[in-house]
Design goal:
The chain is an alpha/beta fold. The chain is built from 15 helices and 32 strands. Strands 16, 17, 18, 25, 26, 27, 28, 29 and 30 form a nine-stranded mixed β-sheet that branches. An eight-stranded mixed β-sheet has the order 6-7-5-4-8-9-11-10, sandwiched between helices. Strands 20-13-12-24-32-31 form a six-stranded mixed β-sheet, with helices on one face. A hairpin with a 6-residue loop joins β10 and β11.
Protein backbone atom coordinates (compact mmCIF):
# COMPACT_ATOMS: atom_id res chain seq x y z
CA UNK A 1 0.00 0.00 0.00
CA UNK A 2 1.85 3.06 -1.29
CA UNK A 3 1.77 6.36 0.59
CA UNK A 4 -0.58 9.06 -0.67
CA UNK A 5 1.40 11.69 -2.64
CA UNK A 6 1.24 15.30 -1.42
CA UNK A 7 1.96 18.30 -3.64
CA UNK A 8 3.54 21.24 -1.83
CA UNK A 9 2.72 24.63 -3.31
CA UNK A 10 5.25 27.46 -3.46
CA UNK A 11 3.59 29.10 -0.43
CA UNK A 12 4.08 25.90 1.62
CA UNK A 13 0.42 24.83 1.56
CA UNK A 14 -0.01 21.05 0.97
CA UNK A 15 -2.41 19.92 -1.73
CA UNK A 16 -4.04 16.63 -2.71
CA UNK A 17 -4.10 15.76 -6.40
CA UNK A 18 -6.65 13.00 -5.71
CA UNK A 19 -9.21 15.46 -4.31
CA UNK A 20 -7.98 18.65 -6.02
CA UNK A 21 -8.03 20.43 -2.67
CA UNK A 22 -5.67 21.73 0.01
CA UNK A 23 -5.10 19.97 3.34
CA UNK A 24 -5.70 23.08 5.48
CA UNK A 25 -6.54 26.76 5.19
CA UNK A 26 -3.95 29.22 3.91
CA UNK A 27 -4.14 30.92 7.32
CA UNK A 28 -2.23 27.97 8.74
CA UNK A 29 -2.91 24.50 10.07
CA UNK A 30 -2.08 25.30 13.69
CA UNK A 31 -4.44 28.29 13.76
CA UNK A 32 -7.19 26.21 12.16
CA UNK A 33 -6.75 23.35 14.63
CA UNK A 34 -6.82 25.66 17.65
CA UNK A 35 -9.66 27.90 16.51
CA UNK A 36 -11.96 25.58 14.57
CA UNK A 37 -11.52 22.22 16.31
CA UNK A 38 -10.16 22.67 19.82
CA UNK A 39 -11.95 25.98 20.29
CA UNK A 40 -15.10 24.64 18.69
CA UNK A 41 -15.19 21.79 21.24
CA UNK A 42 -14.29 23.96 24.22
CA UNK A 43 -10.84 22.45 24.66
CA UNK A 44 -8.74 22.35 26.71
CA UNK A 45 -11.15 23.79 29.33
CA UNK A 46 -13.76 21.04 28.84
CA UNK A 47 -11.44 18.18 29.75
CA UNK A 48 -10.08 19.74 32.96
CA UNK A 49 -10.09 17.22 35.82
CA UNK A 50 -11.56 14.39 33.74
CA UNK A 51 -10.09 10.87 34.01
CA UNK A 52 -10.07 10.49 30.22
CA UNK A 53 -11.08 12.33 27.07
CA UNK A 54 -12.19 10.62 23.86
CA UNK A 55 -11.98 12.38 20.49
CA UNK A 56 -13.27 11.15 17.13
CA UNK A 57 -11.90 12.69 13.92
CA UNK A 58 -13.13 11.88 10.42
CA UNK A 59 -9.99 12.77 8.44
CA UNK A 60 -6.42 12.50 9.75
CA UNK A 61 -4.67 14.11 6.76
CA UNK A 62 -1.24 15.36 7.89
CA UNK A 63 -2.08 14.77 11.55
CA UNK A 64 -2.02 18.43 12.58
CA UNK A 65 -5.27 18.28 14.55
CA UNK A 66 -3.88 15.37 16.53
CA UNK A 67 -0.52 17.04 17.10
CA UNK A 68 -2.17 20.28 18.21
CA UNK A 69 -4.48 18.40 20.58
CA UNK A 70 -1.57 16.40 21.99
CA UNK A 71 0.46 19.60 22.48
CA UNK A 72 -2.49 21.21 24.29
CA UNK A 73 -2.83 18.13 26.51
CA UNK A 74 0.86 18.22 27.41
CA UNK A 75 0.71 21.92 28.29
CA UNK A 76 -2.38 21.64 30.50
CA UNK A 77 -1.80 20.93 34.23
CA UNK A 78 -5.50 19.98 34.49
CA UNK A 79 -5.29 17.46 31.64
CA UNK A 80 -7.07 14.11 31.86
CA UNK A 81 -5.06 11.05 32.78
CA UNK A 82 -5.76 9.44 29.38
CA UNK A 83 -6.25 11.08 25.98
CA UNK A 84 -7.75 8.94 23.21
CA UNK A 85 -7.73 10.25 19.65
CA UNK A 86 -9.44 8.09 17.01
CA UNK A 87 -9.08 9.16 13.39
CA UNK A 88 -10.21 7.71 10.08
CA UNK A 89 -7.94 8.00 7.04
CA UNK A 90 -8.39 6.25 3.71
CA UNK A 91 -5.16 7.52 2.13
CA UNK A 92 -2.27 7.86 4.62
CA UNK A 93 0.61 10.07 3.52
CA UNK A 94 4.34 9.36 3.87
CA UNK A 95 6.08 10.10 7.20
CA UNK A 96 8.17 12.77 5.49
CA UNK A 97 5.00 14.70 4.67
CA UNK A 98 3.90 14.51 8.32
CA UNK A 99 7.21 16.07 9.31
CA UNK A 100 7.03 18.72 6.61
CA UNK A 101 3.47 19.62 7.54
CA UNK A 102 4.47 20.24 11.15
CA UNK A 103 7.81 21.82 10.27
CA UNK A 104 6.43 25.37 10.26
CA UNK A 105 5.40 25.07 13.91
CA UNK A 106 8.28 24.66 16.40
CA UNK A 107 5.94 23.59 19.21
CA UNK A 108 4.84 20.60 17.12
CA UNK A 109 8.18 19.50 15.67
CA UNK A 110 9.22 17.08 18.42
CA UNK A 111 5.75 15.56 18.59
CA UNK A 112 5.70 15.10 14.81
CA UNK A 113 9.00 13.26 15.06
CA UNK A 114 7.50 10.82 17.57
CA UNK A 115 4.48 10.33 15.34
CA UNK A 116 6.59 9.73 12.23
CA UNK A 117 8.67 7.13 14.12
CA UNK A 118 5.54 5.00 14.57
CA UNK A 119 4.15 5.74 11.09
CA UNK A 120 4.76 2.37 9.43
CA UNK A 121 2.88 -0.70 8.24
CA UNK A 122 -0.38 1.22 7.73
CA UNK A 123 -2.30 -1.50 5.93
CA UNK A 124 -6.13 -1.33 5.98
CA UNK A 125 -7.53 -1.77 9.47
CA UNK A 126 -6.84 -0.36 12.94
CA UNK A 127 -3.41 0.71 14.21
CA UNK A 128 -2.85 1.68 17.84
CA UNK A 129 -0.03 4.22 18.33
CA UNK A 130 1.07 5.05 21.87
CA UNK A 131 2.78 8.16 23.25
CA UNK A 132 3.73 9.68 26.60
CA UNK A 133 4.09 6.35 28.43
CA UNK A 134 0.82 5.06 27.03
CA UNK A 135 -1.32 7.93 28.26
CA UNK A 136 -1.90 9.39 24.77
CA UNK A 137 -3.33 6.77 22.44
CA UNK A 138 -3.91 7.38 18.74
CA UNK A 139 -6.08 4.80 16.98
CA UNK A 140 -5.69 5.13 13.22
CA UNK A 141 -8.53 3.54 11.26
CA UNK A 142 -7.16 3.05 7.76
CA UNK A 143 -9.93 2.66 5.22
CA UNK A 144 -13.09 4.25 3.86
CA UNK A 145 -14.92 6.29 6.46
CA UNK A 146 -18.20 4.39 6.78
CA UNK A 147 -16.83 0.85 7.25
CA UNK A 148 -14.21 2.20 9.66
CA UNK A 149 -16.90 3.92 11.74
CA UNK A 150 -18.94 0.72 11.80
CA UNK A 151 -15.89 -1.18 13.08
CA UNK A 152 -15.44 1.08 16.13
CA UNK A 153 -17.76 1.83 19.04
CA UNK A 154 -17.41 4.31 21.89
CA UNK A 155 -19.02 7.49 23.17
CA UNK A 156 -16.91 10.47 22.11
CA UNK A 157 -16.46 13.59 24.22
CA UNK A 158 -15.46 15.67 21.18
CA UNK A 159 -15.93 15.15 17.44
CA UNK A 160 -13.74 16.81 14.80
CA UNK A 161 -15.42 16.75 11.37
CA UNK A 162 -12.55 17.24 8.96
CA UNK A 163 -11.67 16.28 5.42
CA UNK A 164 -11.45 17.69 1.94
CA UNK A 165 -14.33 19.85 0.76
CA UNK A 166 -17.81 18.31 0.38
CA UNK A 167 -17.69 19.04 -3.35
CA UNK A 168 -14.42 17.14 -3.79
CA UNK A 169 -14.97 14.35 -1.25
CA UNK A 170 -18.74 13.92 -0.91
CA UNK A 171 -18.59 10.50 0.81
CA UNK A 172 -16.86 12.05 3.84
CA UNK A 173 -19.79 14.46 4.31
CA UNK A 174 -22.73 12.33 3.17
CA UNK A 175 -25.87 11.93 5.25
CA UNK A 176 -24.94 8.30 5.90
CA UNK A 177 -21.51 9.30 7.20
CA UNK A 178 -22.95 12.00 9.47
CA UNK A 179 -25.54 9.56 10.78
CA UNK A 180 -22.73 7.11 11.58
CA UNK A 181 -20.83 9.91 13.34
CA UNK A 182 -23.91 10.73 15.46
CA UNK A 183 -23.82 7.19 16.88
CA UNK A 184 -20.61 8.14 18.68
CA UNK A 185 -22.26 11.09 20.43
CA UNK A 186 -23.77 11.18 23.89
CA UNK A 187 -25.76 14.00 25.47
CA UNK A 188 -23.39 16.98 25.55
CA UNK A 189 -20.83 15.76 23.01
CA UNK A 190 -19.47 18.77 21.14
CA UNK A 191 -18.78 18.80 17.42
CA UNK A 192 -16.77 21.21 15.28
CA UNK A 193 -15.94 21.66 11.60
CA UNK A 194 -14.69 24.30 9.21
CA UNK A 195 -17.55 24.03 6.71
CA UNK A 196 -20.97 25.65 7.07
CA UNK A 197 -22.56 24.00 4.03
CA UNK A 198 -26.34 24.00 4.41
CA UNK A 199 -26.70 20.30 3.64
CA UNK A 200 -24.26 19.43 6.41
CA UNK A 201 -25.93 21.72 8.94
CA UNK A 202 -29.32 20.23 8.12
CA UNK A 203 -28.04 16.66 8.39
CA UNK A 204 -26.36 17.30 11.74
CA UNK A 205 -29.57 18.84 13.10
CA UNK A 206 -31.56 15.88 11.78
CA UNK A 207 -29.31 13.50 13.72
CA UNK A 208 -29.54 15.35 17.03
CA UNK A 209 -26.92 18.13 16.97
CA UNK A 210 -27.77 21.74 17.79
CA UNK A 211 -25.37 23.72 15.58
CA UNK A 212 -24.50 27.36 15.10
CA UNK A 213 -22.19 29.42 12.95
CA UNK A 214 -19.14 30.94 14.55
CA UNK A 215 -16.50 33.36 13.37
CA UNK A 216 -14.12 31.52 11.03
CA UNK A 217 -10.53 31.93 9.94
CA UNK A 218 -9.78 33.91 6.78
CA UNK A 219 -10.40 33.32 3.98
CA UNK A 220 -13.48 31.62 5.50
CA UNK A 221 -15.91 33.93 7.25
CA UNK A 222 -17.58 31.24 9.39
CA UNK A 223 -17.08 27.82 10.90
CA UNK A 224 -19.53 25.49 12.61
CA UNK A 225 -19.89 24.46 16.25
CA UNK A 226 -22.49 22.24 17.82
CA UNK A 227 -23.54 20.01 20.68
CA UNK A 228 -25.43 16.71 20.72
CA UNK A 229 -28.78 17.57 22.31
CA UNK A 230 -31.53 15.59 20.58
CA UNK A 231 -35.12 16.50 21.41
CA UNK A 232 -35.95 12.80 21.50
CA UNK A 233 -34.83 9.79 23.51
CA UNK A 234 -31.93 8.12 21.74
CA UNK A 235 -32.27 4.37 21.41
CA UNK A 236 -29.14 2.49 20.49
CA UNK A 237 -29.04 -0.98 18.96
CA UNK A 238 -26.71 -1.93 21.82
CA UNK A 239 -26.56 -0.22 25.22
CA UNK A 240 -23.49 1.96 25.76
CA UNK A 241 -20.65 0.10 27.45
CA UNK A 242 -20.10 0.48 31.17
CA UNK A 243 -17.58 3.22 31.91
CA UNK A 244 -15.39 3.14 35.03
CA UNK A 245 -14.37 6.67 35.91
CA UNK A 246 -13.10 5.89 39.43
CA UNK A 247 -10.58 3.03 39.29
CA UNK A 248 -10.15 1.05 42.49
CA UNK A 249 -8.14 -2.02 43.45
CA UNK A 250 -7.66 -4.93 41.04
CA UNK A 251 -6.07 -8.28 41.86
CA UNK A 252 -4.34 -10.14 39.02
CA UNK A 253 -3.64 -13.86 39.42
CA UNK A 254 -0.47 -14.79 37.54
CA UNK A 255 2.81 -12.93 36.99
CA UNK A 256 3.63 -14.03 33.46
CA UNK A 257 3.33 -11.97 30.30
CA UNK A 258 -0.46 -11.76 30.45
CA UNK A 259 -0.67 -10.80 34.13
CA UNK A 260 2.14 -8.25 33.98
CA UNK A 261 0.71 -6.63 30.84
CA UNK A 262 -2.76 -6.37 32.39
CA UNK A 263 -1.30 -4.85 35.55
CA UNK A 264 0.62 -2.21 33.61
CA UNK A 265 -2.35 -1.27 31.40
CA UNK A 266 -4.69 -0.89 34.38
CA UNK A 267 -2.13 1.04 36.44
CA UNK A 268 -1.77 3.58 33.62
CA UNK A 269 -5.49 4.23 34.03
CA UNK A 270 -5.26 4.82 37.76
CA UNK A 271 -5.89 1.35 39.18
CA UNK A 272 -4.01 0.05 42.21
CA UNK A 273 -3.01 -3.45 41.09
CA UNK A 274 -1.80 -6.39 43.17
CA UNK A 275 -0.27 -9.24 41.16
CA UNK A 276 -0.23 -12.57 42.99
CA UNK A 277 1.71 -15.65 41.93
CA UNK A 278 2.29 -19.02 43.57
CA UNK A 279 5.99 -18.81 42.67
CA UNK A 280 8.39 -16.59 44.55
CA UNK A 281 9.39 -14.70 41.41
CA UNK A 282 7.62 -13.37 38.31
CA UNK A 283 7.97 -15.19 34.98
CA UNK A 284 8.29 -18.57 36.69
CA UNK A 285 6.03 -20.37 34.21
CA UNK A 286 5.95 -20.50 30.42
CA UNK A 287 6.86 -16.79 30.26
CA UNK A 288 10.26 -17.61 31.75
CA UNK A 289 11.62 -18.80 28.41
CA UNK A 290 15.29 -17.72 28.19
CA UNK A 291 14.64 -15.79 24.97
CA UNK A 292 11.58 -15.58 22.74
CA UNK A 293 10.76 -14.52 19.21
CA UNK A 294 8.38 -11.75 18.19
CA UNK A 295 7.27 -12.39 14.60
CA UNK A 296 3.97 -12.07 12.71
CA UNK A 297 1.86 -14.75 11.11
CA UNK A 298 1.49 -14.08 7.38
CA UNK A 299 -1.08 -15.66 5.06
CA UNK A 300 -1.95 -14.89 1.41
CA UNK A 301 -5.55 -14.05 2.37
CA UNK A 302 -4.51 -12.02 5.45
CA UNK A 303 -6.44 -14.38 7.71
CA UNK A 304 -7.67 -13.61 11.21
CA UNK A 305 -4.49 -14.78 12.94
CA UNK A 306 -2.36 -12.67 10.59
CA UNK A 307 -4.31 -9.51 11.40
CA UNK A 308 -4.28 -10.24 15.13
CA UNK A 309 -0.55 -10.86 15.33
CA UNK A 310 0.19 -7.74 13.27
CA UNK A 311 -1.90 -5.63 15.65
CA UNK A 312 -0.32 -7.27 18.67
CA UNK A 313 3.25 -6.77 17.51
CA UNK A 314 2.64 -3.06 16.99
CA UNK A 315 1.46 -2.67 20.59
CA UNK A 316 4.29 -4.83 21.98
CA UNK A 317 6.90 -3.00 19.90
CA UNK A 318 5.99 0.32 21.48
CA UNK A 319 6.37 -1.20 24.94
CA UNK A 320 9.75 -2.71 24.06
CA UNK A 321 11.05 0.64 22.83
CA UNK A 322 9.63 2.43 25.87
CA UNK A 323 10.78 0.08 28.63
CA UNK A 324 13.72 -2.07 27.52
CA UNK A 325 17.30 -1.61 26.34
CA UNK A 326 17.81 -2.50 22.69
CA UNK A 327 20.64 -4.96 22.24
CA UNK A 328 20.49 -6.21 25.83
CA UNK A 329 16.83 -6.95 26.66
CA UNK A 330 15.63 -7.22 23.07
CA UNK A 331 16.84 -6.55 19.56
CA UNK A 332 14.98 -5.30 16.50
CA UNK A 333 16.80 -7.90 14.45
CA UNK A 334 14.17 -8.90 11.92
CA UNK A 335 13.30 -12.57 11.44
CA UNK A 336 13.71 -14.87 8.44
CA UNK A 337 10.89 -17.39 8.12
CA UNK A 338 11.56 -20.54 6.11
CA UNK A 339 8.56 -21.86 4.19
CA UNK A 340 9.07 -25.59 3.54
CA UNK A 341 5.89 -25.65 1.44
CA UNK A 342 7.37 -22.97 -0.85
CA UNK A 343 4.43 -20.59 -0.28
CA UNK A 344 5.91 -17.12 0.14
CA UNK A 345 2.85 -15.24 -1.09
CA UNK A 346 1.76 -12.17 0.83
CA UNK A 347 -1.57 -10.29 0.55
CA UNK A 348 -2.14 -8.19 -2.54
CA UNK A 349 -0.71 -4.70 -2.20
CA UNK A 350 2.23 -5.73 -0.04
CA UNK A 351 5.76 -5.33 -1.29
CA UNK A 352 9.23 -4.34 -0.19
CA UNK A 353 8.69 -0.81 -1.47
CA UNK A 354 5.50 -0.30 0.49
CA UNK A 355 4.81 0.34 4.20
CA UNK A 356 4.41 -3.34 5.06
CA UNK A 357 6.95 -5.29 7.08
CA UNK A 358 6.94 -8.79 5.56
CA UNK A 359 7.88 -9.85 2.03
CA UNK A 360 9.60 -12.69 0.14
CA UNK A 361 13.25 -12.89 1.19
CA UNK A 362 15.98 -11.94 -1.27
CA UNK A 363 18.96 -14.11 -2.15
CA UNK A 364 21.17 -11.67 -0.27
CA UNK A 365 19.14 -12.02 2.91
CA UNK A 366 19.27 -15.79 2.63
CA UNK A 367 23.00 -15.73 2.04
CA UNK A 368 23.57 -13.61 5.17
CA UNK A 369 21.94 -16.32 7.26
CA UNK A 370 23.72 -19.22 5.59
CA UNK A 371 20.75 -20.58 3.61
CA UNK A 372 20.77 -21.45 -0.11
CA UNK A 373 19.52 -18.70 -2.39
CA UNK A 374 16.63 -20.84 -3.64
CA UNK A 375 15.20 -21.45 -0.13
CA UNK A 376 11.53 -20.33 0.04
CA UNK A 377 11.42 -17.73 2.82
CA UNK A 378 9.79 -14.55 4.06
CA UNK A 379 11.64 -11.65 5.61
CA UNK A 380 9.93 -9.91 8.54
CA UNK A 381 11.59 -6.56 9.17
CA UNK A 382 9.30 -5.67 12.10
CA UNK A 383 10.32 -8.70 14.18
CA UNK A 384 12.70 -9.27 17.06
CA UNK A 385 14.07 -11.44 19.82
CA UNK A 386 13.03 -10.58 23.38
CA UNK A 387 14.02 -11.64 26.90
CA UNK A 388 10.44 -12.11 28.22
CA UNK A 389 11.35 -11.97 31.93
CA UNK A 390 12.82 -8.50 31.48
CA UNK A 391 9.66 -7.18 29.82
CA UNK A 392 7.61 -8.69 32.65
CA UNK A 393 9.86 -7.09 35.25
CA UNK A 394 9.55 -3.70 33.54
CA UNK A 395 5.74 -3.93 33.50
CA UNK A 396 5.65 -4.91 37.18
CA UNK A 397 7.83 -1.90 38.07
CA UNK A 398 5.21 0.54 36.79
CA UNK A 399 3.75 2.93 39.40
CA UNK A 400 0.64 1.47 41.02
CA UNK A 401 1.66 -2.19 40.59
CA UNK A 402 2.62 -4.45 43.51
CA UNK A 403 3.94 -7.99 43.03
CA UNK A 404 3.41 -10.58 45.77
CA UNK A 405 5.11 -13.94 45.30
CA UNK A 406 4.55 -17.15 47.23
CA UNK A 407 0.78 -16.52 47.17
CA UNK A 408 -1.08 -19.53 45.85
CA UNK A 409 -4.70 -18.55 45.22
CA UNK A 410 -6.94 -21.56 45.76
CA UNK A 411 -10.28 -19.91 45.13
CA UNK A 412 -11.94 -16.57 44.51
CA UNK A 413 -15.20 -15.62 46.21
CA UNK A 414 -17.50 -12.64 45.81
CA UNK A 415 -18.46 -11.09 49.14
CA UNK A 416 -20.68 -8.06 49.80
CA UNK A 417 -17.59 -5.86 50.11
CA UNK A 418 -15.83 -7.17 47.01
CA UNK A 419 -13.74 -10.14 45.92
CA UNK A 420 -11.82 -12.31 48.36
CA UNK A 421 -8.78 -14.25 47.13
CA UNK A 422 -8.17 -17.21 49.45
CA UNK A 423 -5.20 -19.53 49.93
CA UNK A 424 -5.54 -23.36 50.27
CA UNK A 425 -6.16 -22.95 54.03
CA UNK A 426 -9.01 -20.52 53.41
CA UNK A 427 -7.02 -17.48 54.58
CA UNK A 428 -7.44 -14.20 52.74
CA UNK A 429 -4.56 -13.23 50.48
CA UNK A 430 -6.14 -10.06 49.12
CA UNK A 431 -9.38 -8.15 48.71
CA UNK A 432 -10.20 -6.39 45.45
CA UNK A 433 -12.93 -4.63 43.51
CA UNK A 434 -12.11 -6.67 40.42
CA UNK A 435 -10.08 -9.78 39.62
CA UNK A 436 -8.34 -10.82 36.39
CA UNK A 437 -7.31 -14.44 35.90
CA UNK A 438 -3.99 -14.65 34.03
CA UNK A 439 -2.79 -17.98 35.41
CA UNK A 440 -1.89 -19.76 32.19
CA UNK A 441 -2.99 -23.37 32.06
CA UNK A 442 -4.04 -23.13 35.72
CA UNK A 443 -6.69 -20.57 34.78
CA UNK A 444 -9.07 -23.50 34.41
CA UNK A 445 -9.20 -23.85 38.20
CA UNK A 446 -11.03 -20.51 38.35
CA UNK A 447 -12.83 -20.78 35.01
CA UNK A 448 -13.75 -24.43 34.41
CA UNK A 449 -16.12 -23.50 31.59
CA UNK A 450 -13.30 -22.17 29.40
CA UNK A 451 -11.91 -24.70 26.88
CA UNK A 452 -8.27 -24.51 27.96
CA UNK A 453 -5.55 -26.96 27.01
CA UNK A 454 -2.03 -27.25 28.44
CA UNK A 455 0.68 -27.55 25.80
CA UNK A 456 4.09 -28.63 27.03
CA UNK A 457 7.13 -27.23 25.21
CA UNK A 458 10.82 -28.04 25.54
CA UNK A 459 13.64 -26.01 24.01
CA UNK A 460 17.41 -26.46 23.75
CA UNK A 461 19.74 -23.61 24.64
CA UNK A 462 23.30 -22.93 25.65
CA UNK A 463 26.24 -20.58 25.66
CA UNK A 464 27.57 -19.54 22.26
CA UNK A 465 30.82 -21.44 21.56
CA UNK A 466 33.49 -18.93 20.64
CA UNK A 467 34.26 -20.46 17.25
CA UNK A 468 30.65 -21.12 16.20
CA UNK A 469 29.21 -18.97 13.41
CA UNK A 470 25.45 -18.99 13.91
CA UNK A 471 23.12 -16.78 11.82
CA UNK A 472 23.00 -13.13 12.95
CA UNK A 473 19.19 -12.97 12.68
CA UNK A 474 16.62 -15.39 14.10
CA UNK A 475 15.27 -18.12 11.83
CA UNK A 476 11.65 -19.25 12.10
CA UNK A 477 9.73 -22.07 10.43
CA UNK A 478 9.40 -25.66 11.60
CA UNK A 479 10.89 -24.61 14.90
CA UNK A 480 13.11 -21.61 15.44
CA UNK A 481 16.69 -20.60 16.13
CA UNK A 482 17.82 -17.47 17.99
CA UNK A 483 21.52 -16.74 18.52
CA UNK A 484 23.86 -13.97 19.68
CA UNK A 485 21.68 -13.03 22.68
CA UNK A 486 23.69 -11.20 25.40
CA UNK A 487 23.56 -12.99 28.74
CA UNK A 488 26.12 -11.16 30.85
CA UNK A 489 29.54 -9.60 30.34
CA UNK A 490 31.17 -11.26 27.35
CA UNK A 491 28.59 -14.07 27.23
CA UNK A 492 25.99 -14.84 24.59
CA UNK A 493 23.42 -17.62 24.32
CA UNK A 494 21.50 -19.41 21.57
CA UNK A 495 18.13 -21.17 21.72
CA UNK A 496 16.35 -23.65 19.43
CA UNK A 497 13.04 -25.49 19.64
CA UNK A 498 10.33 -26.11 20.46
CA UNK A 499 8.28 -29.23 21.03
CA UNK A 500 4.47 -29.25 21.30
CA UNK A 501 2.97 -31.89 23.61
CA UNK A 502 -0.73 -31.28 24.11
CA UNK A 503 -2.39 -32.14 27.44
CA UNK A 504 0.95 -32.63 29.17
CA UNK A 505 2.03 -30.71 32.29
CA UNK A 506 5.23 -32.63 33.01
CA UNK A 507 8.04 -30.13 33.64
CA UNK A 508 10.83 -32.70 33.58
CA UNK A 509 13.07 -32.47 30.45
CA UNK A 510 13.17 -35.62 28.34
CA UNK A 511 15.88 -37.05 26.11
CA UNK A 512 13.24 -37.74 23.47
CA UNK A 513 12.37 -34.05 23.21
CA UNK A 514 16.04 -33.09 23.25
CA UNK A 515 16.61 -35.34 20.24
CA UNK A 516 13.49 -33.93 18.56
CA UNK A 517 14.81 -30.36 18.93
CA UNK A 518 18.18 -31.37 17.51
CA UNK A 519 16.48 -32.97 14.50
CA UNK A 520 14.24 -29.94 14.05
CA UNK A 521 17.28 -27.65 14.04
CA UNK A 522 18.95 -29.86 11.40
CA UNK A 523 15.94 -29.37 9.12
CA UNK A 524 15.59 -25.66 9.85
CA UNK A 525 19.25 -24.64 9.52
CA UNK A 526 21.66 -27.49 8.71
CA UNK A 527 24.80 -25.36 9.08
CA UNK A 528 23.90 -24.38 12.65
CA UNK A 529 23.02 -27.96 13.56
CA UNK A 530 26.43 -29.05 12.35
CA UNK A 531 28.19 -26.22 14.18
CA UNK A 532 26.42 -27.06 17.44
CA UNK A 533 26.86 -30.82 17.13
CA UNK A 534 29.92 -30.84 19.47
CA UNK A 535 27.91 -28.98 22.12
CA UNK A 536 25.08 -31.51 21.90
CA UNK A 537 27.53 -34.41 22.03
CA UNK A 538 29.45 -33.05 25.02
CA UNK A 539 26.31 -32.32 27.04
CA UNK A 540 26.84 -28.57 27.04
CA UNK A 541 23.27 -27.99 25.87
CA UNK A 542 20.59 -27.12 28.45
CA UNK A 543 16.90 -28.00 28.24
CA UNK A 544 14.11 -25.73 29.39
CA UNK A 545 10.47 -26.78 29.73
CA UNK A 546 7.35 -24.64 30.02
CA UNK A 547 3.61 -25.29 29.89
CA UNK A 548 1.73 -23.02 27.52
CA UNK A 549 -2.01 -22.45 27.72
CA UNK A 550 -4.10 -22.65 24.56
CA UNK A 551 -7.81 -22.29 23.85
CA UNK A 552 -9.91 -24.59 21.72
CA UNK A 553 -9.54 -22.35 18.65
CA UNK A 554 -5.93 -21.32 19.45
CA UNK A 555 -6.83 -17.68 20.08
CA UNK A 556 -6.45 -15.78 23.38
CA UNK A 557 -9.39 -15.39 25.72
CA UNK A 558 -10.15 -11.90 27.05
CA UNK A 559 -13.39 -11.06 28.80
CA UNK A 560 -15.74 -11.59 31.74
CA UNK A 561 -16.15 -15.02 33.28
CA UNK A 562 -19.44 -14.58 35.09
CA UNK A 563 -20.77 -11.42 33.51
CA UNK A 564 -19.02 -8.09 33.59
CA UNK A 565 -21.18 -6.88 36.49
CA UNK A 566 -19.38 -9.22 38.88
CA UNK A 567 -15.91 -8.02 37.94
CA UNK A 568 -14.27 -11.43 37.41
CA UNK A 569 -12.39 -11.45 34.11
CA UNK A 570 -9.85 -13.57 32.27
CA UNK A 571 -6.87 -12.78 30.09
CA UNK A 572 -5.34 -16.12 29.23
CA UNK A 573 -4.67 -18.75 26.54
CA UNK A 574 -1.95 -16.77 24.76
CA UNK A 575 -0.46 -20.06 23.55
CA UNK A 576 2.98 -19.83 21.95
CA UNK A 577 2.46 -16.16 20.99
CA UNK A 578 2.55 -14.50 24.39
CA UNK A 579 4.93 -11.79 23.21
CA UNK A 580 2.61 -10.97 20.30
CA UNK A 581 -0.64 -10.98 22.27
CA UNK A 582 -0.03 -9.95 25.91
CA UNK A 583 0.08 -6.16 25.49
CA UNK A 584 -2.76 -6.13 22.94
CA UNK A 585 -5.03 -8.27 25.11
CA UNK A 586 -4.27 -6.13 28.16
CA UNK A 587 -5.20 -2.96 26.27
CA UNK A 588 -8.37 -4.60 24.99
CA UNK A 589 -9.40 -5.52 28.55
CA UNK A 590 -8.66 -2.03 29.85
CA UNK A 591 -10.55 -0.44 26.96
CA UNK A 592 -13.62 -2.56 27.70
CA UNK A 593 -13.54 -1.63 31.39
CA UNK A 594 -13.30 2.10 30.68
CA UNK A 595 -15.53 2.25 27.57
CA UNK A 596 -12.55 3.44 25.56
CA UNK A 597 -12.02 3.12 21.82
CA UNK A 598 -11.01 -0.43 21.01
CA UNK A 599 -7.47 -1.15 19.79
CA UNK A 600 -8.99 -3.57 17.26
CA UNK A 601 -11.97 -3.53 14.90
CA UNK A 602 -15.06 -4.86 16.66
CA UNK A 603 -15.00 -8.15 14.73
CA UNK A 604 -11.41 -8.86 15.79
CA UNK A 605 -12.15 -7.89 19.39
CA UNK A 606 -15.03 -10.36 19.45
CA UNK A 607 -12.69 -13.02 18.05
CA UNK A 608 -10.70 -12.74 21.30
CA UNK A 609 -13.63 -12.44 23.70
CA UNK A 610 -14.67 -15.08 26.20
CA UNK A 611 -18.25 -14.51 25.00
CA UNK A 612 -17.45 -16.23 21.69
CA UNK A 613 -17.47 -19.54 23.56
Amino acid sequence: MAAEPVTWRADGVPRSERFDDIYHTETGALAQSRHVFLGGCGLPEAWAGQPQWLILETGFGLGLNFLTTWQAWRADPERPRMLHFVSVEAHPVAPGDLLRGAGAYPELAALAGELAAQWHGLLPGFHRLSFDDGRVLLTLCIGDVQPMLRAQRFEADSIFLDGFSPQQNPDMWSADTLKAVSRFARQGTRIATWTIARAIRDALQQYGFAVEKYKGLPPKRDCLRGVFAPAWTVRRREPPPERIDAPGHCAVIGAGLAGAAVAASLARRGWRVTVLDAADWPASGASGLPVGMLAPHVSPDDALLSRLTRAGIRVTWTELERLLEDGRDWRASGVLERRPDGDVRVPAGWGASGPNESWPASAGQLASTGLPGDTPALWHSRAAWVRPHRLIAAWLRQPGVEFRGGCRVARVELEPGGWQLLDPAGQSLAEADRVVICAGHESGRFAPALPLQPVRGQVAWGAMPGSTALPPTPINGDGHLIAHVPDGPGTQIWLAGATFDRDSTDLAPTATDADANRERLARLHPASAAALAPSFSSGDVESWVGIRCASGDRRPLVGPLEGSATGLWACTALGSRGLSFAALCAELLAAQWHAEPLPLPATLAKALGTQRL
